[in-house]
# Entry
Amino acid sequence: MVYASIDKIITEQELLKYRNVNTGYIDVDLSFFDKNQRTQEQNKIMHCLFREIAVWSCGYETPKDELEYKNYMKKQYSDKPFKTSEMTSKEATDFIAYIIDFCFQAGVPFRKKGVEMTDDIQRYLYLCLKHRVCAVTGVKGEVHHIDTIGAGRDRRHVDHSQHRLVCLSREMHIKAHTMGWEEFAALHHIDGIKLTAEQVKEIKYK
# Structure
């Protein structure tokens, strides 16, 4: 026996609409969701990224262009054929990060905010730091220390792994200082991240 719940209250009269006239039972469709499987939101993000690459490369987008760049990115990502529909959530997250990394390296601009083009904001913020891309606007950026270092201290001798960092354009950097970080972060739905000592080296920040 299977017990099910519904997400809204319905009247008995409404419920009767689903009764099978032959059996007298209520007919329902039952499906199981694998929580480890790639989500619809992840699928949407992937296709948004493929469209961005198509527009950047061709100047326009068609379903054919989107499919072409989808297949291109899949071949670049792995030498073994795979279906994005069969990915786990973790595999999809890694693939999305790979596509974003490609876009940053190639200079592919996003027409939407970058934070809307990822399902892993922490990794996105790291890639922004690595490629010096503003986490808000997507233009060229610079590393911003959220946690104050202190006047007179030499940044070359500061352990940057002990401070929250974010990459911002000059304009956004000034706004963050003017508004204060908490208000700025709430407005743009981002925050800084702390990196490991190894990651600080990877982003080439001294």
Remarks:
- DSSP finds eight helices and two strands in the chain.
